[in-house]
Write a structure and sequence with these properties.
Strand content: 5-15%
Order of helices and strands: HHHHHHHHHHHHHEEEH
Number of helices: 14
Radius of gyration: 28 Å
Largest sheet: 3 strands, antiparallel
Number of strands: 3
Length: 289
């Protein structure tokens, strides 16, 4: 490996110049020493990324370029992503020891999903994504002092995360079958809407209390106000053009045109009265009167 390190040094000198080579070569010695310790010679890319992880290889980009150029050990994005997903999954599982019932449920669910992966029916990324709502529910269960969810806790979780209903069904079915409980993933639209409005109201209130002449204020205020007052949601990419076409109405608010319909939203009077000039500068051009 000493010979290989010398070869890398020569390549570094030729590729990046003497100054860069002299200042940086010492950073990579531990990389070569670790390879010698673990394998004795250079392994394939899958072994490298499995051992050093994607983050570790990002810190040795120059040796990796050398390995690609000289030894034809080339990075594989699919292998790198798969390894990263496994690392994320392992990090999640490490938070839930198998000594607890909640931990046993999480690990058991993942084991079931991995069996499906071995059958070619899912991927590591899909397993991690399926685990996200399972972990979220389990955290709520643990905070409530329970081992497993009941219907009340599941309802509470889905009220706050209605979009996760479909994703959590697999975990619920697993719990019902393995732990002989009987709970159902369901969402109450009225309760969900009421809860959402409370969150939007709290967000608007917080922005009013912390109002400033910051150029980003209107970009933060507008989507929340539109959803709260008119139940209209807009994608982020629409925001700039929406604000550019805003119509000034009075000292209390503006009209915004969404899908050919005008929607009036109020603007905090404290911001208008104290920082009117700065407030209007948050738009790319003056508001239309």
């Amino acid at each position: 490996m000493a010979k290989e390190f010398g070869s890398f040094g020569d390549w570094l000198l030729t590729t990046y110049g003497g100054k860069t080579a002299a200042l940086s070569i010492h950073r990579y010695l531990t990389f070569f020493l670790e390879i010698e310790k673990v394998w004795g010679s250079f392994p394939d890319y899958r072994s490298l990324v499995g051992h050093f992880k994607a983050e570790g290889l990002r810190r040795v980009q120059r040796p990796m370029r050398w390995l690609s150029a000289i030894h034809e050990i080339k990075p594989d994005p699919e292998i790198r992503e798969e390894t990263s997903e496994r690392t994320r999954l392992d990090n999640i599982l490490a938070l839930y020891p198998s000594s607890t019932i909640a931990g046993q449920a999480i690990h058991g669910y993942v084991a079931r999903l991995k069996r499906r992966q071995h059958e070619g029916k899912t991927t590591t990324r899909s397993i991690r994504l399926a685990l996200t709502p399972a972990v979220g529910l389990s955290q709520l269960v643990i905070r409530a002092g329970h081992d497993l969810p009941n219907q009340k806790l599941l309802d509470a979780y889905l009220t706050d995360h209605p979009g996760q209903k479909a994703a959590i069904i697999g975990f619920i079915n697993f719990l019902n079958r393995e732990y002989q409980i009987d709970i159902k993933a369901r969402v109450d639209p009225k309760l969900t809407r009421r809860n959402r409005r409370k969150k939007l109201e709290a967000a608007l209130s917080a922005m009013m209390q912390n109002g400033s002449n910051d150029a980003g204020f209107l970009r933060k205020w507008t989507p929340v106000a539109l959803e709260y007052f008119h139940d209209v949601k807009i994608p982020r990419r629409m925001l700039r053009s929406l604000l550019e076409s805003a119509e000034y109405v009075d000292e209390l608010g503006v009209n915004l045109v969404v899908n050919s319909r005008r929607h009036y939203i109020p603007v905090p009077t404290s911001i208008l009265s104290k920082n009117s000039g700065a407030f209007r500068q948050t738009l790319s051009k003056p508001l239309k009167k």
